[in-house]
Amino acid sequence: MLLCVTASHKTAPFDLLERLSLHTRDVAPLIAEHDECVQGAVVLATCNRFEAYIDMDEPVTAAGAVGVEAAMLAIEAATGVTTAQLEGSYSVVTGPAVAEHLFAVASGLESVVVGEGEIAGQVRRALTEARRHRTTSPELERLFQRATEAQRGVKNATALGRAGRSLVRLALDLADSRIADWATQRVLMVGTGSYAAATLAALRDHGATDIRVYSPSGRASQFATKHGIRAVDDAGYAAAAAGADLVVTCTSAEAPVLTAQTLRTGALAAGTQGAHRRLIIDLGLPRNVDPDVSSVPGVALLDLETIRLHAPLEELQATDAARQVVSDAARRFAIVGERQSLTPAVVALRTHVFGVLESEIARAQARGDDGRTEQSLRHLVGVLLHTPTTRAHELAEAGRAEEYVAALNTLFGIEVDEPGESAAGSPDQLAAG
Question: Which domains, ranges and CATH numbers included, belong to the chain?
Answer without folding.
Answer: 2-164 (3.30.460.30), 167-309 (3.40.50.720), 337-431 (no CATH)
